[in-house]
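Input chain follows. Return structure tokens only.
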Amino acid sequence: MTTPTPLRLHRANSGAPRTGRILQTTFSVAFLLATLFTGFSPKMFSGNFGTLISGLLTPQPVGGEAVPTTQSNNIRIGIVSGHWGNGGDPGAVCPDGTNELDVNLAIASLVSQQLEARGYVIDLLQEFDPRLDGYQAALMLSIHSDSCDATNPDATGFKVAASSYSRDNNLTDRLSACLEDRYGKITGLLFQSGNITVNMTDYHAFRAIDPSTPAAIIEVGFLYLDRTLLVDHPDVVANGLVAGILCFVRSESVQPVPTP
């Protein structure tokens, strides 16, 4: 009977060169992969495969949260809710008790929520918020409502005034133009260009914020003839304001108008 010893010796002897070939192949493949990934770009692949590879190579945050990729990242916007926190001054008051402070805050809160949902950093500010001192942002907008005086048959429409303290009037003019255009189109209200008051053009917050911050104040409508829109449909008002703000921060097309 043949002894198994020579067979085991034969396998051991024949395995030595095979092991060398395996090691050589492994090093060659490793070198090739290293060369490929040194100059790798997902654009090397077409279709969904390139997208898949790109996604796999993108660092994922802990907890599975989505990584923000929009241009809104870190863009700060200040929204002042008129008369909020103003020492008990509710602004305009209607005979049934409806007051400007509550209307403004409801609208300003909706605007803030919509913008935050789009990834913007929002500061919802009170009328004389201490944060206004030297405030820096992509823009600041103060939201107010007009009077509930029933004696004026023309008490309808909205008004916009830009800051005259801004370092760049072109920016503030463009902010005003965006608000006038988008807000008017969405709400259907007319722009009352001839009724801009000194309280708007010399608004206290314009003097408090950093002059590099483009700023404007808007009277979103009258609590008299525009009451249904302001009180019952604050979401429509907020939509108009958000559209105007996005027009500005996204540099959308709009015709600039001179500052009143």
